[in-house]
Amino acid sequence: MRAEMPPVAARLRLIGIYLAPVLLAAAGSVLDWPGWVVGFLIMIALIVYGAVRPTRTGKTLPKPPLRRFLGFVLWTSAFVSVVATFHAARLTVLDLTGSPATATIDYMEMDRTIHRGGRVEIDYCYHLKRSDGGWVSGSLCRDGQEYSRGQTVAVLADPTGLVAPETPEEVAGVTLFRTIALVSYALIIVSALLGGGPAAPQRPLVPPQTRYPRWRPSPPRPRAGSRTRTRRKTRRR
Description:
transmembrane, four-stranded antiparallel beta sheet, 4 strands, alpha+beta, DUF3592 domain-containing protein, elongated, transmembrane helix, 237 residues
């Protein structure tokens, strides 16, 4: 016997579960959160989901090889979609809604991080000022010292001010991560609809709502090989 396909509602719910971490990755990318913060939030969400998830009852049957392969594709696509979304969300927003602006480097901030083994990592964040004297919301961060004070830079700025600015060259390079993210979303949806998730529990032979008929003893059956004895009626003279 093979495992049955989960109902459609369960497959749609599985799609929502696997796409939920993507929302956290997109929010972290747009709001410029560190990667470890996004990973920590996803871990907390998984712990909460595991705690409130109802316990499954019933025996599960083995899935066919195709559904096991779809389950592997489902898990892999979920991980890849989170990574790709974290790298592509902010740049995609700037690519769609960003307006070109010419700004000047006003001042620079250095963020020094010391890792284990003595390795030092320095992030340079440049604060920009428009040509009309207004500030560009957010900062332009780099791993190395690429700009100097007073240098003119062409950037794409978000009109709402929620997304940090970025240069057009960096925004143009988002095509690869955006394509990987979209393909991962499609694989999650297709794999879940084709039954790549957990196997549905085996249906009981008798539904729990069905009432069993009242038991009545059956008549005794004759044993095999036994003969019934009959009495002959004799007349008295």
